[in-house]
Amino acid sequence: MQLEFFPSRTLTLYLVRLFATRIIGVLLMLVLVLQMLDLLSESGDILAYPGNGEPQLWTYVSLRAPQLVARFLPYSVLLATILTLATLNQNSEVIAMKAAGLSAHQVLAPLLLTALVISGVSFAFNERFVARASATLKAWQAVDFGPIPQDTAVRSNVYLRDGNNILMARLVTGTGRATVLDDVTWYRRDSRMMVTEQVRARRARWTAAGWALEQPVRFDVHSTTQTPLPALAVAPDVPPATVELTNVDPDGQNVFELAHTIRALKASGRHTDELEGKWWHRLSGPLSALLMPLLGAIAAFGLARSGQLLVRAVIGMALGFAYFVIDNAALAIGNFGGYPPLVAAWAPFLLFALIGETVLIRTEE
């Protein structure tokens, strides 16, 4: 028995079923509660747009739910681990398995296998559904919950440098020469970076002379006068390719699209550490589910009648939540250049894998 990683087939299926049903139950509970709270906070903005009603609320739920599932699936695995192992310990099933000759790693093997499958499903779900839902939801929010744009690659509040001048657009839609800037403001600045002139336009499109403003209105700062202009083209040195690489949303792109964006930004000499950290985290993030049985294993070993089962469960939860805190902190530090992107994404996973294995070995007996 000691030479086999998994226990008997019957016991393996029993533990997998026990663990999987608890993961699903905890995940449904968390998503339903959080979705209701989130919908209550956003429903006012959704219904504020003329013509929106119940169908738009359900549309919001369909776009927000995948994000909640992706975010709280690792937490669900952690809580399901504590519930499963604490129940097995309370019913003396762990003692029976150890009396049959199983080691701690063999007891946890079915849970680790289930968590590995959950990690794979989580990665596929994130790339296939979450990225698309995130892009669509952000595009919808950018138009204040109006008609959902056909082009989900909508960017909001984009600022572009035109030498000393600044070109700002509230919304950017389209790609290539079909790029359209909405609610455009162009600021002319002098050598001291002081704004001397402001030009506003409803829309701008790319032409050979630059961004052609539709019905531009000029405001002169010194004379405080406002003058309508017949036509004006600004920022000829800011082509659509530059606009496309501005305000990149990594959450709205899958790993292949994000890798292409990173290569394009590098080719243009842009800083990509934050995006590279997000790319690596798209791989390491789903694997966090694999850590949860290891970090929560402390709840399984030790005599339940000793009165320390609750303390062990709390320690297991603390280890799991500490991982999420350290993981987010490392990613944030990596975004500021404190860590290389690879280290920022993978160091917390490896660190807590070693901590979990150490705690498991020391508490097995």
Automatic annotation (TrEMBL):
Subcellular location: Cell membrane
InterPro entries in the cross-refs: LptG, LptG/LptF_permease
Sorted UniProt keywords: Cell membrane, Membrane, Transmembrane, Transmembrane helix
Topology in the lipid bilayer: Multi-pass membrane protein
Primary residence: membrane
GO BP field: lipopolysaccharide transport; transmembrane transport
Any one annotated GO CC term: ATP-binding cassette (ABC) transporter complex
Pfam families, per database record: LptF_LptG
Transmembrane segments: 12-37, 68-86, 107-125, 283-302, 309-326, 338-361
NCBIfam families xrefs: LptG_lptG
Name of the protein described by the UniProt record: LPS export ABC transporter permease LptG
Taxonomic source organism: Novosphingobium aerophilum
Gene label: lptG
